[in-house]
Amino acid sequence: MSTQFDNVTVLKKGNVYFDGKCVSHTVLFADGTKKTLGVILPSSLNFGTASPEIMEIVSGSCRIRLKGEEAWNTYGAGTQFSVPGNSSFDIEVTETVDYVCHYG
């Protein structure tokens, strides 16, 4: 996993969700793709997805349960998980999570 993105546009206005428990910024690439870089504070939240997403965990630790599944899976720094489009996932953050969300 890369440690930086080069030649990108970063939108200055942050995306603030769940009363500030999740804050991200949008990164736009020359090829039209978009990613978000963010932080999720320790909490239990539910996120909905419009398009498929890959969540890359840069640091921290969390448990994830995808919509329709009973099992929880644990993720930490250097791992990632996929979420289908038009779906959702529960996240239980045990140690502040720094993440990159890849769309599409």
State mean pLDDT (0 to 100 scale): 97
Shape, per Cα inertia axes: globular
Count of DSSP-assigned helices: 0
Structural class: mainly beta
- pLDDT below 50 for ≥5 consecutive residues: which ranges? none
Can you count the beta strands? 9
Radius of gyration: 13 Å
Helix content: under 10%
Compute the separation of the termini in Å: 18 Å
Helices and strands, in order, run as EEEEEEEEE
How much strand content do the residues show?
Answer: over 45%
Biggest sheet layout: 9 strands, antiparallel
Q: What does this protein look like?
A:
The protein is mainly beta. Helices cover 0% and strands 65% of the residues. Strands 1, 2, 3, 4, 5, 6, 7, 8 and 9 form a nine-stranded antiparallel β-sheet that branches. Its EC number is 2.4.2.1, 2.4.2.2. Catalyzes the phosphorolysis of diverse nucleosides, yielding D-ribose 1-phosphate and the respective free bases. Can use uridine, adenosine, guanosine, cytidine, thymidine, inosine and xanthosine as substrates. Also catalyzes the reverse reactions.
Summarize the structure.
The protein has about 100 residues and is mainly beta. It has strands at about 10, 15, 20-30, 35-40, 45-50, 55-65, 75, 80-85, 85-104. About 0% of the residues lie in helices and about 65% in strands.
Short descriptors:
104 residues, mainly beta, nine-stranded antiparallel beta sheet, 0% helix, RmlC_Cupin_sf, Ppnp
Write the layout of secondary structure elements.
Blueprint: E1 8-10, E2 15-17, E3 22-29, E4 34-40, E5 43-49, E6 53-66, E7 73-76, E8 79-83, E9 87-103
